[in-house]
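Please, structure for the following, as tokens.
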Amino acid sequence: QLQLEESGGGLVQPGESLTLSCTVSGASLDHYTIGWFRQAPGKEREGVSCLSNDGNNVYDSESAKGRFTISRNKAKNTVYLQMESLKDEDTAVYYCGVDFLLSTEQLCHGVGSRVTELVPYWGQGTQVTVSP
């Protein structure tokens, strides 16, 4: 059984940085595509940044480009999302999700509004609040 656990959320001011972690148990990072998603109140869950199973292919959403960086530590079976220059609109619950078949672009963008329906594995989420 695959289990995902996010951590690292918190309250920060605009312009500050934060790094989220997602630790996976039950299968190695080599076996699936993994991504960071977020869901703000009243909005659908959206893909932020996704990483391929070999760690070589990254898909970043427009909101992530230039500010967020996804990375991984295979030894810890953990994926990170380093977020810089945070804005108020980055406030959301951040989730990591895993799929064994989808590509990075499919996982982060292609599934669109059906992401919670089509992606089988999720963590419980971690709250990120950006506020003065």
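The CA atoms of residues 46 and 112 lie 7 Å apart. The chain is about 10% helix and 45% strand.
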